[in-house]
């Protein structure tokens, strides 16, 4: 009977933990960040972007893409926000495309959250010894035995640390994952980077099937982001080449809604109405009740079985 009680207690604690995690996840709200989002036609009437600068070999097709590099050797291009990303918690979802006509290709592209902006350099088309966060989509393997490429890697820069291209940044890797199939994928390729200050950093990829997000990495010890940091993208080709396209950028400011209703003031989201439990959590509560119902039924069955076994043993004597 002691084992039964322990099992039921463990199940109950797991249910509470699951419910708490679900409630916290449902409690996260978002506000679009227009200053860091970008979509077709990308440019304003004066053929400039209000919120982004671009340079190097970057070209823009207003009805299709922002091409950081074309499928030619020795190209470098960049795209950087004009204003810093000041949100404490944020999410950036990017649709991109890596493709080309050659069987051998390289080198890759990067996303940046850094103090520097718009500087051509040797790290996927941008400056080395950066301060901030870089996410590298590396398509060409130099020297990393046992690692499948393309490889997606995060690096945290302190302004002094250098990226070693010869080892594909092995010694400076913060987190990463292999992403075979991300080039020439049959579905729109996307990544989603979510950052909660002092809580977690998570990178998800979509390249296997549309609507299916694959976790690349997640950590509950996120790096510190500089207070003044710009969102940017860059790419480069060497002797080998590829097209590196940005299709769209969707940035959001994230915040936890107040649990008691009323109005919430998440920075620029002042005055946003918080959804009531009936509006936002009804399905979660419904499935929780179903889970608890079957938990009680299962516990009762286990208890009854144990009682019968006990009873039979007592009748033998």
Automatic annotation (TrEMBL):
Keywords, comma-separated and alphabetical: Membrane, Signal, Transmembrane, Transmembrane helix
Compartment list: Membrane
Q: Where is the signal peptide?
A: 1-23
* Membrane topology according to the record: Single-pass type I membrane protein
The Swiss-Prot or TrEMBL record annotates one GO molecular function as: D-mannose binding
Offer a single GO CC term for the protein: endoplasmic reticulum-Golgi intermediate compartment
Protein's UniProt keywords contain Membrane: yes
Q: Where does the sequence pass through the membrane? A: 283-307
Q: Which residues form the L-type lectin-like domain?
A: 30-254
Which PANTHER family does the record associate with it? RE50040P, VESICULAR MANNOSE-BINDING LECTIN
Q: What is this protein called?
A: L-type lectin-like domain-containing protein
Q: Which organism is it from?
A: Thermothelomyces thermophilus (strain ATCC 42464 / BCRC 31852 / DSM 1799)
């Amino acid at each position: 009977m002691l084992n039964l009680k322990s099992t039921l207690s463990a199940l109950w604690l797991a249910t509470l933990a699951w419910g708490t995690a679900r409630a916290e996840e449902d409690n996260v709200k978002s506000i679009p960040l227009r200053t860091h989002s970008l979509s077709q036609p990308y440019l304003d009437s004066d053929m400039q972007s209000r919120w982004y600068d671009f340079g190097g070999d970057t070209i823009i097709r207003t009805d299709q893409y922002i091409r950081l590099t074309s499928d030619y050797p020795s190209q470098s291009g960049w795209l950087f926000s004009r204003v810093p990303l000041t949100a404490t918690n944020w999410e950036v979802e990017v649709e991109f495309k890596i493709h080309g006509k050659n069987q051998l290709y390289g080198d890759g592209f990067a996303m940046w959250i850094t103090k520097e902006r718009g500087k051509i350099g040797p790290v996927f088309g941008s400056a080395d010894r950066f301060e901030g966060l870089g996410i590298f989509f590396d398509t060409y393997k130099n020297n990393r035995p046992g690692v499948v490429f393309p490889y997606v890697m995060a690096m945290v820069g302190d302004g002094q640390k250098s990226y070693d291209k010869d080892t594909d940044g092995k010694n400076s890797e913060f987190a990463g994952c292999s992403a075979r199939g991300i080039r020439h994928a049959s579905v729109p390729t996307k990544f989603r980077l979510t950052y909660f200050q002092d809580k977690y950093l998570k990178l998800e990829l979509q390249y296997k099937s549309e609507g299916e997000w694959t976790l690349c990495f997640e950590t509950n010890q996120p790096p510190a982001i500089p207070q003044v940091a710009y969102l940017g993208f860059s790419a480069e080709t060497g002797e080998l080449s590829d097209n590196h396209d940005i299709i769209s950028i969707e940035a959001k400011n994230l915040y936890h809604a107040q649990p008691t209703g009323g109005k919430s003031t998440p920075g620029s989201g002042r005055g946003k109405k918080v959804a009531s439990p009936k509006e936002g959590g009804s399905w979660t509560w419904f499935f929780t009740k179903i889970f608890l119902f079957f938990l009680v039924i299962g516990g009762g069955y286990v208890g009854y079985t144990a009682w019968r076994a006990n009873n039979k043993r007592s009748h033998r004597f």
